[in-house]
User: Fold this.
Amino acid sequence: SQQGEEDPQALSIQEGENATMNCSYKTSINNLQWYRQNSGRGLVHLILIRSNEREKHSGRLRVTLDTSKKSSSLLITASRAADTASYFCATAYQGGSEKLVFGKGMKLTVNP
Amino acid sequence: DAGVIQSPRHEVTEMGQEVTLRCKPISGHNSLFWYRQTMMRGLELLIYFNNNVPIDDSGMPEDRFSAKMPNASFSTLKIQPSEPRDSAVYFCASRPKTGAWGEQYFGPGTRLTVT
Assistant:
């Protein structure tokens, strides 16, 4: 399967702490994207990192990409209760169609 | 902008009945994707369209599923006949013209329960 895999599958932290989520994938990519899903809602795009980029920031989010290890990490700094959600990585594979392949997601709980 | 609109938000039907899910993409977006989400299988791409043309339907589980996009502002996903294993949340997403593999904008989903 080309599906990305998030790790850990669940994480529970206190408000103010940092949360790190990892994603591994299997084949060469054009880009990797992170999405958030609040309970009962659709997915919301957070950030996109291209295969020739190593790090990207957006507000409290920091994403890194290591194409040699086929892995990415999403860091949320100074977490808030509102960050409680499921987080998905999605990979856009080179040479294939334009579709994204989503991992199964990781549940983050931020306790107030 | 209204975002991606899906209807109905919830659908409960009996096995064997026809189910039609509807999606209105964001105006100006030229790609549309249908996904299914379950606990067991996660988020699966069923089919996607570029400029109203189906490009990849390899994720459609079987002939009971069909999708159409008659114009740039409307798409349907039909299941006929429905089965209990079709119970899932179905999402529609659209993507702007800014390039392949770009970010997708998801609708709120339709929660389908087949009894």
